[in-house]
Amino acid sequence: MAPPAIDAPVLLRLEGITKRFGALTANGDVSLDLRQGEILALLGENGAGKTTLMNILFGHYVADEGQVLVLGSHGALEELEPGSPHAALDAGIGMVHQHFTLAENLSAFDNILLGTEPLSAIKSARLPARKKLDELMERSGLAVNLDTRISNLSVGEKQRVEILKALYRDARVLVLDEPTAVLTPQESETLFATLTKLAGDGLGIIFISHKLAEVMASSHRVAVLRGGRKVADLPTEGSSQRQLAELMVGHEISETVREPGTPGAPLFVLTGVAAGHGRDAISDVSLDLRAGEILGIAGVSGNGQTTLARVISGLETVSAGILMLEGDELGQVSARQMIDIGLARIPEDRHHDGIVGAMTVSENLAIEGIRKPENQRFGMLRFSAMRDRAKDLIEAYDIRCQSEASPARLLSGGNIQKIVLARTLETEPKVVLAAQPSRGLDVGATSDVHKRLLAARARGAGVILISEDLDELMRLSDRIAVIHRGHLSQAEPTEDLDRSKLGLRMAGHDGEEAA
Amino acid sequence: MIEILDILVSENFWAASLRIATPLIFGVIGALICERAGVLNLGIEGIFTAGAMAGWMAVWLGAGLWGGVLVAALAGGLFGLLHAILTVPLGLSQHVSGIGVTLFATSLSYFIYRTALPDVSSPPRIEAFQPLDIPTLSDLPFIGPALFQQTSLTFLALILVLATSYVLYRTPLGLAIQAVGDNPSAVESQGLSVYALRMGAVVVGSSIMALGGAFLTMSAFDAFFFGMVNGRGWICIALTVFASWRPGKALIGALLFGAFDAFQVRLQTEVGSFIPGQVFLMMPYILSIIALIVVARKADYPRALLVPYFRGQR
Asked: Which CATH number is associated with domain A266-342+429-514?
């Protein structure tokens, strides 16, 4: 992509921003420039301080040191009043948060107008606003039905409303926090096409991301944050994914590679399964998992994968269909029974369903095998044996915690996931159900998760990998099926698939027609 | 059956329904404004009592009737401010703070009344609001006495319903209040103050609630008694849910409740000889519980109701 002219004026300058939360330094002396017409990617792992930095820019937080300068009307940089979203908006800074800031009970139009008119106004001036918005939508290509209630809009539409909110206020700088986290690949492409167009019209754009592919494809310049400090600031052209990944993590990383495998006999089979109700219901779902393979299930969240995972876990009663393990039909099984016959469950919401936050690391590691003789004797828990075992697992799985006695909730997301992995995979299960196993994890923790799943496959287990991340699915899976509105497509070998085919199916188009 | 029909066609039944509904209209509109902004105000029962006492006492001390109404609103607003400070910037439990405000406002009202009038046996009376005589309308047959012989406060309540409806749905302020009760970060990210909107809504809503109390001592009766609010505030909290937080439906709910209440009094005199009176007294409450069960299951709650907002935390 063509970067903006070198003499384009600087729109925004962060100077020596430092922000501490107690003992933690979220941002240490970060300086950053943004030119007119430039798309800057702010890259970093979770906890690198990207969101904090942008929240300071937008006035949600006040920096302990440093200042934010914005190009003023006189053509010179002026200091922005800290801690005031209002001042940031007035200075032409628009922010699209990762979690949308929209009132669901109002229309798109009302949300855009919110706060743009004096609260003392007797009447809302709708007609001129409408006209301006129609023009904006025309010019930017962001189409939204303005009169629809936000609760009836899709995620992609909500994001367009967020961008329109900023443009309606004549934003000159647009900040997007992990904008593609909730989008399908097609929606993401549309988004970046729009952003490129907006940048061409003179907007300065910062987007936060930890996805290297989109950073490489859609930015002019990359600033990398690590541990709250800026470690690199370089033109995208001429840099490589590998280089950026290493800057982000701070050390060399080894790619996880899937060795070709030889899948064995059918291991776990679902036939015509229906369950759940409402948006997340599934119907007539069939899949066959073989020993020694990873079966990927792609789909935008909210299309039934949660229910499917609950069915496989034994947490949801099926209304039709049968489940078979190694040729034996399973009747109505409980979660307990599923674990006992060899299912490892890596739940989607690891904080909520994966651990008990108030209990210690060692208790959480033992919790699924609490009735086994190594953990209890005559109904009494063997705490010291549990602790010894926990120490081994902490070592083996590199779980970073103060000790095996610290409460699990104090651990980071990646380390919580390692507890889940250690607990479930250590028992050498036959079937591994991994639901969104790397969601929200950084590069290092993700690569750990991937290695563990591949190791389970190499050992001969069957792995069901439910994910929204196409790169992850393509890299790990032997075969991939797509779930859309509760229906699961036939699984196909990964070699026969590509991103755009999968993306279309995730959006509900039939692969053959559209391809 | 004939007796029931007799009740329904009598003009004074309809007049009584509207009269009984009036304090509820004030209460439910006030509660609705608070809850639309995301704050449950269980101080309502005490704020009713405070409004009843303050309004009456102002008039008894020599203020005009409208002066009394203003004093009642001010008293309500002050207790509202207390609740707002505790629940909005401090983010304390709205239930606990609300119950506290009710206990505090009720006791303080009784205390002031007793201190001002240490040794009266029968409560002193004031010259209360009289029914308005509206030319031609009040003289219409049936409709006149049924609907148009009410005091000014009843008409004020009806006007407030319209005004609240307009502000909530047609003005930028109303949109902001709806938004802050649904997703405060939507309001903050558009440069508005969550705290100012919520506190403002609670103070104004509480002032309106207090008018319901003032109606009791300055229009329905002409004196202040202990225990006269008698659960009306709590009924308003239920009616707010019944109304799905909409002013129009709130009016309908209050009128229905008023009608049930007026009906049971009359039915009691007609057939009271063989059914204990308490059964009739229970009727409006049982009916409101049934109505709530039917309506509230699919109620469209303000999503941020009861959820305190702290800046920079998401």
From this structure: 3.40.50.300
